[in-house]
Design a protein that fits this description.
This protein has 106 residues and is α+β, with helices and mostly antiparallel strands. 48% of the residues lie in helices and 20% in strands. The chain has 5 helices and 3 strands; from the N terminus they run αββααβαα. It is globular.
Amino acid sequence: MLVNITLSAMLSQNHVMGDAFMDWLIYIVECRDGSLYTGITNDLQKRIASHNAGTGAKYTAARRPVRLVYREHAASRSAASKREITIKRLPRKAKQELCVTEFSSL
């Protein structure tokens, strides 16, 4: 079972440390049909909004609304892209475990 994490709760940790945080994030959203979509961004609120507006990825456009279930910071775009690929290769169960771990760390 995936845990719904509010965007504001996830971003509050980001705000606490201010500029000390990295700019790039890897995120997972759960789509309306229960599927998981993994991506990277440097503006999480804007990216989630674009997914829900249907202007994000083609994959999520037909599976709206999406809800954020995981996020992870990365030091650079390159590091975020590499981690995104690693997460995309994980089996669904492992992705779900990441999401549960994220929720329990908040």
